[in-house]
Amino acid sequence: MASYALQIAGLVLGGVGMVGTVAVTIMPQWRVSAFIGSNIVVFETLWEGLWMNCMRHANIRMQCKVYDSLLALTPDLQASRGLMCAASVLSFLAFMTAILGMKCTRCTGDEEGVKRRILLTAGLMFLITGVVVLIPVSWVANSIIRDFYNPIVDAARKRELGEALYIGWTTALLLLAGGGLFCCAFCCTHKTSSSYRYSVPSHRATPKSLRAEKKSPSIYSKSQYV
């Protein structure tokens, strides 16, 4: 029962992490314009994402433009685009693998050993996905903070941390937690199967022992029978 609860919790966290990974990949709020310096234009907000940049005017309308070339991005955004795409695919594969290894799933049969290995594979995939999501989000955040406190960088080019980065950190934690729960479920099912395996009584009668008992000679001699 505890193993099944861990599987359900891991699947829920992994599913939310998968949705969050796709959302972070699409969202343009990776870098947000910082309102600092003497010339502050509070009516315009600039968003920079992996695929496009958007200009929001006084919370009324928003214009977005897709990047013309991959070379127009900074190196951290270029690497982040590839890593987040890989994380999106990997999270989907991990989620589908976890469904196949669930206790309530019958398409993979009733073999407990096979399902345990499938759950372990799904857990490892979720852990890897969490690390892959964490790398680009932390990389971009480090670049933003470094440029923000760099006095050489012009105030108009300084940016702040966007909502996508915070969602990315939360998503990475959910994926890591989901993968950890699946690994715990694998350990629980492995211990349970081992206890069942070694709890067979040693004095259980077998066909061979019954035949041996029938063929064993009597300890009484014929002269003792009346």
SSE inventory with pairings:
Blueprint: H1 2-26, E1 31-33, E2 44-48, E3 52-57, E4 61-66, H2 75-101, H3 112-148, E5 159-161, H4 163-197, H5 207-215
Antiparallel strand pairs: 1-2, 1-5, 2-3, 3-4
Helix pairs in contact: 1-2, 1-3, 1-4, 2-3, 3-4
Architecture overview:
- It is a single chain.
- With 226 residues, this protein is of the alpha+beta class.
- The chain has five helices and five strands; from the N terminus they run H-E-E-E-E-H-H-E-H-H.
- The protein has a five-stranded antiparallel β-sheet.
- The chain is elongated.
- It starts with a helix and ends in an 11-residue tail after the last helix.
Order of helices and strands: HEEEEHHEHH
Share of helix, binned: 55-70%
> Would you tell me the structural class of the helices and strands?
alpha+beta
Provide the β-strand percentage band: 5-15%
Put simply, the count of helices is 5
Strand arrangement within the widest β-sheet reads 4-3-2-1-5
The major beta sheet can be summarized as:
5 strands, antiparallel
Described by the principal axes of the CA atoms, the overall outline is elongated
Distance between the termini: 62 Å
Keywords:
226 residues; 5-stranded antiparallel β-sheet
Give a brief description.
The protein is built from five helices and five strands, in the order H-E-E-E-E-H-H-E-H-H. By secondary structure, the chain is an alpha+beta fold. A hairpin with a 3-residue loop joins strand 3 (52-57) and strand 4 (61-66).
